[in-house]
Amino acid sequence: xxxxxxxxxxxxxxxxxxxxxxxxxxxxxxxxxxxxxxxxxxxxxxxxxxxxxxxxxxxxxxxxxxxxxxxxxxxxxxxxxxxxxxxxxxxxxxxxxxxxxxxxxxxxxxxxxxxxxxxxxxxxxxxxxxxxxxxxxxxxxxxxxxxx
Length: 148
Description:
Layout: E1 5-8, H1 14-27, H2 34-44, E2 51-58, E3 61-71, E4 80-88, H3 97-111, E5 117-118, H4 126-135
Protein name: GNAT family acetyltransferase
Keywords: Acyltransferase, Transferase
Domain N-acetyltransferase: 4-148
């Protein structure tokens, strides 16, 4: 397959986005209520929201997605960029899709004046971590979480 074209997700691409979103959730053993998925879709296309989505396209097929969110920080004047979700279709793995999507988020964050891009992944996600280790530093922080 050729190198991916990275571009914003369009409002008419719900049918292409849904399988990737569901694949991402399945990979992490997560479920999201349909109304939350609908809300997420709406937010991704609302210019007043800090949420954004890019997709990778290869030969006319959407093969990957990334969602990212800008937020304020008490440590910087500009925003931080949280890369929340990243997923590549099984058939497109190993073709540079994930790398291209992350680098596109870096470019968007830089353009927005963000001072950092950060994300989380599971420790056992060895394949993704091999890529991430070439693109970013691990600062050594541990995440704590309380579900409410």
